[in-house]
Amino acid sequence: MQSISKFVEMFPSNINDCLATQDEYNRIMNAEYMSVRDFIILHYCTTERKDTEFWRACGQMEIPESLTTRLNLFRSQGRLYKDDFDLFTNNSWYAVLEGYGCSPLEVTILSLIYRTPLKSVGLCQGRLKLCVLLQNYCLIMLHFWILTALLKNKSW
What we know:
Largest sheet: none
Shape: flat
Number of helices: 7
Number of strands: 0
Radius of gyration: 21 Å
Distance between the termini: 45 Å
């Protein structure tokens, strides 16, 4: 549906503008398709299943550079980002990553603050309470640091 909306939005009013508009529409659609491709591949490349030839082959598949970058950012510090053309939210990415056991090696304060709403990803109750508590603590500390800096500088 989004591609149809974008097509209508970008439909040229002048025949002379067609080539530039066509190129831009194709660039946007390509970015959206690559994002969907990465999200689908994520389901297969992160699984630990090895019970059939299919799953063993999935474990050996070549992972696109864009997905490798996203996985590395998440695994290193728990960072998730959303490109302008991503059709899937960070909640969706986080749910798949956590569901397949991909956990960050280190979690930064900012990644906790801007992480997806933890209640929506189905973590076990004890871990969920700890994550929510830590997330709220980080938000409070961030506000404290900002207010302290503002009061010191009196730059408002």
